Predict the structure.
Amino acid sequence: MSFSQIMTSLRKKEYSPFYFFDGDESFYIDKLIDFIQNNVLDEGEREFNQSVFYGRDISPEDLIPVVKRFPMMAEYQVVIVKEAQNWKDLSALQTLLENPVPTTILAISYKEKKLDGRNSMTKLIKSKGTYMNSSKLRDDQVSSWLNDHCKLLKLDIDPRAIVLLSEHIGADLISLDKALQRLKLVASGEKITPDLIQEHIGISKDFNIFELQKAIGFRDNARAIYIANYFANNEKEHHLIPVTYGLYRYFTQLIRYHRAENHADPQKLARAMGVNPYFVKDYRQAAVNYPRVKLMKVMEILHDIDLKMKGLGNSTARHKELMNEMVSRILRV
């Protein structure tokens, strides 16, 4: 089941006797576990009917008698096991799946790992229990996630602010959610802009990968060199690896632009490129400046910089030199 399906059922008080959440994205796992811990039972019922363990402190075998207890003056008892990923053998849980206790709600989080789908116990968990795998987003999915999450939080956000957050924070959903929650407090119903992000999150609206991409795409050489020099002198905040990857992703989107069949419809073009429709006009301009032949040369430059970062090709160049070299070579294409 998906996160939204499980959360909808929980809000409707349609409970399962067995929940199992695994995967390398903690955000959704934590959300579901927190909801079960704080909402299934009333505050007065939790003292005698709610048990919370960590996987390192209890074994599956020791968990069974806890789960089989009856609730005291409540409809359910809740048993939660957090961070159970170090459990070596889950076979002891078989009896709880085949003979569930209707008055017990058991929820297990199994972070940073995924169950082996070939295992018979895994198949039993998926068929008999309520199971969710929470996988990390790809970088190209972050902007879409931010857009949807802002709607969920009832936030009005500038598309440029979405790009700023996604480029700076990346696919760390916990950090992104914290940033949005903070912005929601300070925005007080107003639109979230790059200026607001710079003031309260500490991300510069002038010196970021988005502004570098835009300057290079528009052939604004002076600004591109200015930003690159700032990055070169601030390695801690603007390390070469994410900057190189950000440019690689940008030029990959330009390649998709050239390959797209329909350039007249901004919505279809945006979907083909994997970008927000708001930015299609910027990519149109950049595509004029970088036809296909030049894009291939840019990709060769980025590949060469990547090799130099790894110390290949007898390169001893450091961060500052490589940052400036990368941008200046792209601008000369």
Summary: The two ends are 49 Å apart (CA to CA).
